[in-house]
């Protein structure tokens, strides 16, 4: 994996970083790296995530999923960090692009019932994931899925694998029914847990090379260094931080590979939930290359100068030639390989952003295989940890999400609290086309 930060330099972009500013930033990266390494060595909360390539037990995951290894479809019931990594991995690596991995990470009744009605539940494995074991959406969806299995005459205890913490209702349920259960790794926040059982179970069930993925992540761990000029992950993190400080408060992540679209979702949680604190943090935007050149690029190129555009591609791609056409006007496409066209689109977009002075960075994998994806996930986690150090925020917690969770819980439990009052006392000015109320 490599990272090209050339188009983030002040010589090209505004906001941009001068060479001197990069050199100054590099001194801070050295200190931050020291802090990160200390956290890794001591297995500190959060930093322990950067040890997963070494601490994750792939064999234990394979043993736990053995009873459902015959599954044609895997349904992951989880949300946030308990779903996004798993989807990213199967989308990138599964032979079918991840279509046999269905993720229920929302409680939309229309969607859930439609998904269940389309599944052959006897050939389905249920992967329930929750670090806390208390997340309402996950537990509700699991009870609905379980009920559907019972109604279909399928023994759900034979088709379910659980990943959760030591305590909580999900752990208790797994224990009561003697379900194959994997532990959420200690000291690892959900959004940093893709390289553990939290992200790897569906990939293991669907026959993906999870060991190769961990090897790729381990290779990326080897590149962590006290200088951003020696470490792709830190180069990316330092530039993202430096540009945010200079006004690039949005990070538009644009993978040029359909299989990496879920990666942009995973990245969005990692970046938003880790760095959105103390009134700062880049807002992640998701796009897809080349598709969103035809929907978002106008804004990225000619809109507010508040963005870093992150372009991502695998260098090696399968090939698919464009056939000849009868019209001369299409002659320029004849014999073009679609992959070549996609890469040309990336380079043209990159140049168009640079021409307009909009900062952009290119992240490249050798190819989209288990090693490549392992490198990418690990590098982005390390980049995020670095930004947290440079920004001086608490990277590994997400206190701001608790208010809403508790408010919903108070309503569901019929309590009358400050939070339920805040819900009831909403300021309303409804515009309904009948003069407003
Ligand atoms: O794994 P859990 O505990 O169900 O939490 C799911 C997600 O919800 C959050 O806690 C946010 O509400 C995320 O940090 C986490 O990834």
TrEMBL record:
<keyword id="KW-0963">Cytoplasm</keyword>
<dbReference type="InterPro" id="IPR035476">
    <property type="entry name" value="SIS_PGI_1"/>
</dbReference>
<dbReference type="GO" id="GO:0006096">
    <property type="term" value="P:glycolytic process"/>
</dbReference>
<keyword id="KW-0413">Isomerase</keyword>
<dbReference type="GO" id="GO:0004347">
    <property type="term" value="F:glucose-6-phosphate isomerase activity"/>
</dbReference>
<dbReference type="Pfam" id="PF00342">
    <property type="entry name" value="PGI"/>
</dbReference>
<dbReference type="InterPro" id="IPR046348">
    <property type="entry name" value="SIS_dom_sf"/>
</dbReference>
<keyword id="KW-0324">Glycolysis</keyword>
<dbReference type="GO" id="GO:0048029">
    <property type="term" value="F:monosaccharide binding"/>
</dbReference>
<comment type="pathway">
    <text>Carbohydrate degradation; glycolysis; D-glyceraldehyde 3-phosphate and glycerone phosphate from D-glucose: step 2/4.</text>
</comment>
<comment type="function">
    <text>Catalyzes the reversible isomerization of glucose-6-phosphate to fructose-6-phosphate.</text>
</comment>
<keyword id="KW-0312">Gluconeogenesis</keyword>
<dbReference type="GO" id="GO:0051156">
    <property type="term" value="P:glucose 6-phosphate metabolic process"/>
</dbReference>
<feature type="active site">
    <location>
        <position position="405"/>
    </location>
</feature>
<feature type="active site" description="Proton donor">
    <location>
        <position position="273"/>
    </location>
</feature>
<comment type="pathway">
    <text>Carbohydrate biosynthesis; gluconeogenesis.</text>
</comment>
<comment type="similarity">
    <text>Belongs to the GPI family.</text>
</comment>
<dbReference type="GO" id="GO:0006094">
    <property type="term" value="P:gluconeogenesis"/>
</dbReference>
<dbReference type="GO" id="GO:0005829">
    <property type="term" value="C:cytosol"/>
</dbReference>
<dbReference type="GO" id="GO:0097367">
    <property type="term" value="F:carbohydrate derivative binding"/>
</dbReference>
<protein>
    <recommendedName>
        <fullName>Probable glucose-6-phosphate isomerase</fullName>
        <ecNumber>5.3.1.9</ecNumber>
    </recommendedName>
</protein>
<dbReference type="InterPro" id="IPR001672">
    <property type="entry name" value="G6P_Isomerase"/>
</dbReference>
């Amino acid at each position: 994996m490599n990272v090209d930060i050339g188009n983030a330099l002040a010589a090209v972009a505004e906001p941009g970083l001068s060479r001197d500013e990069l050199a100054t930033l590099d001194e801070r990266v050295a200190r931050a790296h020291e802090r990160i390494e200390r956290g890794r060595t001591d297995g500190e909360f959060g930093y322990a995530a950067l040890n997963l390539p070494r601490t994750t037990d792939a064999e234990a995951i394979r043993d736990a999923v053995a009873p459902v290894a015959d599954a044609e479809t895997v349904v992951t019931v989880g949300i946030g960090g308990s779903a996004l990594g798993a989807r990213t991995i199967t989308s990138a690596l599964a032979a079918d692009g991840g279509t046999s991995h269905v993720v229920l990470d929302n409680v939309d009744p229309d969607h859930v019932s439609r998904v269940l009605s389309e599944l052959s539940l006897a050939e389905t494995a249920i992967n329930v994931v929750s670090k806390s074991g208390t997340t309402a959406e996950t537990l509700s969806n699991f009870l609905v899925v379980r009920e559907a299995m019972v109604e279909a005459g399928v023994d759900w205890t034979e088709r379910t694998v659980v990943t959760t913490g030591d305590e909580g209702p999900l752990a208790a349920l797994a224990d009561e029914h003697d379900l194959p259960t994997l532990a959420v790794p200690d000291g690892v926040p959900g959004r940093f847990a893709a390289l553990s059982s939290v992200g790897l179970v569906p990939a293991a069930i669907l026959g993906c090379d999870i060991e190769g993925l961990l090897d790729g992540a381990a290779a990326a761990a080897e590149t962590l260094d006290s200088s951003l000029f020696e470490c792709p992950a830190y180069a990316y993190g330092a530039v993202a931080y430096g540009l945010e400080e200079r006004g690039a408060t949005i990070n538009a992540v644009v993978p040029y590979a359909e299989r990496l679209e879920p990666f942009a979702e995973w990245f969005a949680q990692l970046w938003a939930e880790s760095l959105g604190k103390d009134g700062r943090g880049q807002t992640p935007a998701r796009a897809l290359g080349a598709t969103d050149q035809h929907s978002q690029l106008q804004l990225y190129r000619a809109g507010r100068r508040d963005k870093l555009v992150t372009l991502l591609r695998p260098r090696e791609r399968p090939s698919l030639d464009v056939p000849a056409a009868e019209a001369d006007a299409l002659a320029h496409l004849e014999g073009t390989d679609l992959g070549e066209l996609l890469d040309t689109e990336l380079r043209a977009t990159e140049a168009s952003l640079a021409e307009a002075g909009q900062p952009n960075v290119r992240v490249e994998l050798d190819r989209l295989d288990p090693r490549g994806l392992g490198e990418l996930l690990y590098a982005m986690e390390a980049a995020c940890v670095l930004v947290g150090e440079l920004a001086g925020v608490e990277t590994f917690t997400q206190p701001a999400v608790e208010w809403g969770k508790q408010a919903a819980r108070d309503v569901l439990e019929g309590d009358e609290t400050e939070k339920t009052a805040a819900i009831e006392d909403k300021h309303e000015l409804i515009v309904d086309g009948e003069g407003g109320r």
